[in-house]
């Protein structure tokens, strides 16, 4: 027995010193192979009486199992250390400055991302937080809860991509606007609410001014005693900040959305000189966003009492804001992925607003 213990201790201490998988393999063959100490012990069993064989056999077997286990855990230990070591040496330091070289070496921030970051930045200074929602929605969040029931004519205005219905499950669609995030927020959070929701939206449309995928930013404010004056003040301040024009000519033109009442379209004053647009001067009007006071039916659909809460919502198209601010004339350029275009219209990564916008 003491022999066995001694052999076990010796082999275990040898295993504990192993540093590499190669070394481990060699020692494993040496110790457990035909000429190894364990095999020699096993073979010696043929010379002993059957009584002794029972006792010795059991202890030799335990020895073998213990040694095998020790080899296994050593192997795991080496492999883990190897992975940690690789993570350490293969680490990429994304904070290092780019090496000087030609333009293509440095990534550029896409004007759409830049515009979204910029708008988030402005609204976060107004104390708004960011909410997101899924691209694939259901009828309830995209239409019904927004006071657009099945037979409502407004459904025709949204050329919707439906996702084929499998196994009689609920019909899914690609959201046609960011307004479903209003609904999700009102259902999941208690007012007061002060959020904006940037994200992708989809409609079956494709020409120089429409893309089947585009971006919107939704806004929602719910509190007690909120009125249209708050909406006007906030959105005027936002437009002046975004277009960097003080005393921007702005008008709220009556409009219709099923989920707001009253509803308005916001126009800003501009002037066209040759091919370029000058915002904030001249006598022409440019439509930039939709807005209105949240319809009482929308509150009810979200289990909120319209007698207790009021609020307003607004929605804007990111592409339109980007085109106006950066003088981009064809919407399709945004999605062509032409590196020359991005080098010209994109933004350096070193002087952008510090915002990390993630979609879920
Ligand atoms: N969801 C509307 C659209 O896509 C925009 C909007 C949002 C209008 C919120 C009013 C209030 O056209």
Secondary-structure topology with pairs:
Layout: H1 2-16, H2 21-32, H3 37-44, H4 50-89, E1 108-109, H5 111-125, E2 129-130, E3 136-138, H6 139-142, H7 154-157, E4 162-163, E5 172-174, H8 180-188, E6 193-202, E7 213-223, H9 228-243, E8 250-257, E9 260-273, E10 276-279, E11 284-294, H10 296-301, E12 310-317, H11 318-326, H12 339-345, E13 347-348
Parallel strand pairs: 2-6
Antiparallel strand pairs: 1-13, 3-5, 4-5, 6-7, 7-12, 8-9, 9-10, 9-11, 11-12
Helix pairs in contact: 1-4, 2-4, 5-11
Residues 177, 179, 218, 257, 260, 290-292, 313-315 line the site of phenylalanine.
Strand content: 15-25%
Helix content: 40-55%
Chain-averaged pLDDT: 91
How many helices? The count is: 12
As for the CATH topology of the largest domain, it is: BirA Bifunctional Protein, domain 2
Q: Stretches where pLDDT falls below 50 for ≥5 residues?
A: none
Global shape: elongated
Radius of gyration: 34 Å
Give a count of the beta strands, DSSP E runs of length 2 or more: 13
CATH class of the largest domain: Alpha Beta
**Unique bound compounds:** phenylalanine
Annotated CATH architecture of the largest domain = 2-Layer Sandwich
Number of domains: 2
Distance between the termini: 63 Å
Tell me the structural class.
alpha+beta
């Amino acid at each position: 027995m003491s022999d066995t213990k001694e052999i076990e201790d010796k082999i275990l201490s040898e295993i504990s010193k192993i540093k590499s998988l190669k070394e481990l393999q060699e020692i494993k063959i040496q110790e457990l192979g035909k000429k190894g100490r364990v095999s020699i012990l096993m073979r010696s069993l043929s010379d002993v009486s059957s009584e002794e064989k029972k006792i010795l056999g059991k202890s030799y077997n335990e020895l073998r199992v213990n040694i095998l286990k020790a080899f296994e855990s050593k192997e795991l230990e080496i492999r883990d250390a190897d992975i940690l070591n690789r993570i350490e040496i293969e680490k990429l330091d994304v904070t290092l400055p780019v090496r000087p070289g030609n333009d293509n070496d440095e990534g550029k921030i896409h004007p759409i991302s830049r515009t979204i970051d910029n708008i988030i930045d402005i609204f976060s200074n107004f104390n708004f937080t960011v909410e997101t929602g899924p691209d694939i929605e259901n009828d309830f969040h995209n239409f019904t809860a927004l006071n657009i029931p099945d037979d409502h004519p407004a459904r025709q205005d949204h050329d919707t991509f439906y996702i084929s219905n499998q196994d009689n499950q609920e019909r899914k669609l690609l959201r046609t606007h960011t307004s479903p995030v209003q609904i999700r927020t009102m259902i999941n959070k208690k007012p007061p609410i002060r959020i904006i929701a940037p994200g992708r939206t989809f409609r079956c449309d494709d020409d120089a001014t429409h893309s089947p995928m585009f971006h919107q930013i939704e806004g929602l404010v719910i509190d007690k005693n909120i009125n249209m004056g708050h909406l006007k003040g906030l959105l005027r301040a936002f437009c002046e900040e975004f277009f960097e024009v003080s005393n921007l000519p702005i008008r709220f033109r009556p409009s219709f959305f099923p989920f707001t009442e009253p509803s308005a379209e916001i126009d800003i004053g501009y002037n066209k000189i040759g091919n370029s647009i000058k915002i904030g001067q001249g006598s022409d009007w440019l439509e930039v966003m939709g807005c209105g006071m949240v319809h009482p039916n929308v509150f009810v659909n979200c289990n909120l009492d319209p007698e207790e809460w009021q609020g307003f919502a607004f929605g804007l198209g990111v592409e339109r804001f980007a085109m106006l601010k950066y003088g981009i004339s064809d919407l399709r350029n945004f999605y062509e992925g032409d590196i020359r275009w991005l080098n010209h219209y994109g933004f350096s990564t070193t002087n952008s607003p510090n915002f990390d916008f993630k979609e879920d």
